[in-house]
Each structure stands twice: as structure tokens, then as C-alpha cells.
Amino acid sequence: MIELRQVAFSYGSSEVFSNVSLRFEAGSFYGIFGPNGGGKSTLLKLMTGELMPSSGEVLPRPVSSMDRARMIALVEQELPNRLPLTVRETVALGRYPWGRAAVVDAVVGRALEALDLTDLAARPYAALSGGEKQKVMLARALAQDTPVILLDEPASALDPGYRQRFYQLLRTCADNGKCVIMVSHDLFLAPPWLDQAILLYRGRVCGSGAPAQVLSGECCREAFGLRDGGGFPVPGVWQG
Question: What is the pTM of this model?
């Protein structure tokens, strides 16, 4: 579905990645973890085509920006604050890549319902709380109905209970055939829903595989600065 082949990337003289190869398949839910500044958001921008690798390649290569928008829905870490639109109108922006013939009302209605936003549909987006705005951006990505969903810290403003419900929703998207790739710092609640965890550290893939294995090993402890036998996540919270 998306493949990185020996990708390297630098911001000027500052190298972020070197020789990174990853493959993301349809029907799977991936979590990308790592310390701050480790390149997680940069990796998503390489997948969307916003950034181009210094060497290597990212596949497939969309022919146009509209083709890219029909393939990938992106939920960014930074939320827009002052959109002069209602909640429903904001979610309906997800249908734009599909043109005027797109069926808007039914798809948007389902997305609003999935994120518990139906009662807020007529409210101005700018009047929402941070958590509500985050849910609107998630609903917009669902309304876009693309085969790939990329998410950068999508649950950071959600309370733990709703965060669990949200991960369950993404799990359902993957079970229905979508490729879901999420950058996250949530090492406690997110892993049980994932098919695969990827740990980035010092410009390389430090671990890739079953979340319980990748996120409890020595590389994870080193990446997050845990010493003296400290473990992360806390044993028993989600491993089992």
C-alpha cells in the first residue's frame, strides 16, 4: 500500500533519516513511536509527498495532488483554530477530492455519528474545545474515505475513555481494509489495538513488529531515556 525504500532525508545539514525501509499494508493498523524530534512527523510528510527524500523512494507516487487526496487522508498534529465553518461544513471538506458527484450528506452524517458529533453539527467550528476540534478533524478524515489514513498524535486532546473508543474506531477501519498509520506517544492505551509498532530512534528503525515486543525491549528504554531496569510501558497495563 505504501512503501519506503532506503529513504534518507535531511533538513539542510541535519540528517533525520538514513536508509529507512518500511512497508505498510492494507487492512493493518500501525503505530509509529519514538522520542520527540525523532522524525515521526517527517516520516508522515514523506508519505504524503509534502517532503521529498534526499535519496531512496516512497511508493506509490501520486500523479497529482488530487490523486493523493483520493488515496491519503491526513490528520495533522496542529489543529486549525479559526475555520469560518460549522462542524458539518468542516467535515464535508473531506468529500472535496471526489468532486461534485460525491454523495455528501450520507457520508458526512456517518462520520459525524462515528465521532459523536451529530448534536454539534450546526455549531461553529471555532467555538469548539480542543478535544472537540480534534474529533472534527478525525471525522473529516473518515468522510474523505481513502484507502490510507495517516494520523499525527490524533488523540492527544481526548480523555482516556474516549481515546479508547477512538482507537477502536481506527481498529475497525483497518479491519475493513484500510491502511491506518498513526504517530503516537500513547504507549499505554494505543498498543492493544495495533497490528504492528514501529520505533524510530536516532534516524533509524529501532524496532518493528508486535507491539508487546517492540515497546518493552532495550531499544525502547534507551530511546525514551529509561535507565536502571526501568520499563515502559508499565508491565501489566496492556501486555498479555
Answer: 0.90
